Amino acid sequence: MKYSNQFKVVSGKKVRLKDIDSAFKGKHENHKEAAEEIEEDRKKLRKLQELLYAHGQCSLLICLQGMDTGGKDGTIDHILGAMNPQGCRVVGFKQPSAEELAHDFLWRIHQAAPPRGQVAIFNRSHYEDVLVVRVHNLVPHAVWSQRYDLINAFEQGLVAHDTHILKFYLHISKEEQLKRFKERLDDATKQWKISEADYKERYFWDDYVAAYEDALSRCSTEVAPWFVIPADHKWFRNFAIGQIVVEHLEGLNMKRPKPNVDLEHIRREYHAAKEA
Ligand code: AMP
Ligand code: MG
After folding, report:
1. Among 94, 99, 130, which residue has the most ligand 1 atoms within 8 Å of its CB, making it the best to mutate?
2. Does residue 205 have a pLDDT over 60?
3. 69 pLDDT band (50/70/90 cuts)?
4. Strand order in the sheet with 119-123
5. How many domains does the chain have?
6. Rounded CA separation 23/230 (Å)
7. Which of 91, 139, 204, 260 gives a 20 to 30 Å CA spacing to 118?
8. Separation of alpha carbons 118 and 54, rounded Å
9. Which residue, judged by its Cα, is nearest atom 2 of ligand 1?
10. What's the confidence (pLDDT) of residue 272?
11. Could you say which ligand is closest to the alpha carbon of residue 194?
């Protein structure tokens, strides 16, 4: 079965994260075995992104969400590293500024949506407004609980503008997170990433799981699906996401525009003498 089907959250279905194996590896045992296929997909990604740019009619928005250490940065490195930076943009969403908070929660998101021909990857997204905001009661229940419908309507609007939306939840276990925190602690090049706040968020793990399950269940739509990606194995996470993005772009039937000059004329006029 294709990973796009296997990991897609069926619209309207209630997600239970504990029933999804975060350590799933599929047909390969390890990175080495999968490496060739992963590399092939990266080459395809490069060509497809160039085609998206040339085609110029639609855009791609990839949203990445997950618990701390889930692998958002690594995924960006993998997917975007395969593409031409001129046609892509990464946008990270942190705590909103005073100006952003004075607007509706989608204001800053809409500005970052990709224009035709471009790819945007969101490192966190509008979903934070029903995740961290819900877990920490940053706004009243009456406010965040409306946001699922607002998000669905907003995403539909982007889709109507030919933006293709793929949303990935990077699914790691609580044990895997602790292991990754420990790796940071033991690796001098990663220690700068450590914050005590990240450890403290672990106390809220179950609340985050509940918030994620609602977001995934209520906002996975036919036009803007969520995928729950098993992410305990970094190579598998990259493999699955790469494959899903490639498959989606291949399905778009994109074409390079026809040249709007007379090629024969150009050949005759500017090359004939040289070639003669
Ligand atoms: P990082 O991605 O690790 O640099 O951290 C960014 C932080 O900003 C995370 O703790 C997010 O939960 C937080 N953040 C992102 N969006 C929002 C939001 N809309 N409201 C509150 N906090 C947010
Ligand atoms: Mg962080």
Report:
1. 94
2. yes
3. very high
4. 88-92, 119-123, 59-66, 163-171, 226-230
5. 1
6. 6
7. 260
8. 10
9. 94
10. 85
11. 2
Of all residues in the chain, the percent with pLDDT exceeding 90 is 97
**Domain at 202, CATH number:** 3.40.50.300
**Is residue 87 over pLDDT 80?**
yes
Position in ligand 1 atom list of the atom nearest CA 105 = 19
pLDDT of residue 273: 64
Which amino acid would we find at residue 109?
I
**CA-proximal residue: ligand 1, atom 12 (nearest):** 132
Using an 8 Å Cβ cutoff, are 227 and 212 in contact? no
Pocket flag, ligand 1, residue 94 (CB < 6 Å): yes
**Which pLDDT score, from 0 to 100, does residue 140 have?**
98
Q: What are phi and psi of 68, to 5 degrees?
A: -55, 140
Residue type, 242: G
pTM flag (> 0.85): yes
CA of 48 to the centre of ligand 2 (A): 31
Structural domain boundaries, residue 46? 3-275
Cβ–ligand 1 distance for 93 under 6 Å, the answer yes
